[in-house]
């Protein structure tokens, strides 16, 4: 019988926290079971092994990032919405360093939950871009521009690649300003 209060969501949440605390190499079913005070085989009642656990964390991470940027954009439009999304994106990534890399994985073919979680990030961005009149294929290009800019900075930052003695906050602010300016003047070619 499963431990009281332990369900798939609780197992995935605990694993996500471990991933943020220990990085990917620290996550295993044995370590997770120990943290939860159960035997490893009992986790299989809640998740389909390591692959199922990773899938659950990935969907949770994508949904969490979408929620963070969506909340940041509420009541905002134009460059202000872009700036708020950019700062929420970075805050979420820095708060969840183990989960963040999972947010940029492509959705698994045929996995509706993963596809929905993945598209929820794009929906927020498309909605904001629509306020600039950027739609359809142009919105895809602009989304790729925005996400690759934000991801590039955040990925380098979380890997410790910014060793020069210049304030990271200032550098990110400059990046965000230029991205917002570029999107506000996005030309449809």
TrEMBL record:
Q: What is the name listed in the Swiss-Prot or TrEMBL entry for this protein? A: Transcriptional regulator, TetR family
Question: Which N-terminal residues, if any, form the signal peptide?
Answer: none
Membrane-crossing ranges are none
Q: What Gene Ontology terms describe what this protein does at the molecular function level?
A: DNA binding
**What are the record keywords, sorted?**
DNA-binding, Transcription, Transcription regulation
Which Pfam families does this one have?
A: TetR_C_33, TetR_N
- Which stretches hold the DNA-binding feature? 28-47
Q: Where is the HTH tetR-type domain?
A: 5-65
Q: Which domain of life is it from?
A: Bacteria
In which organism is this protein found? Actinoalloteichus fjordicus
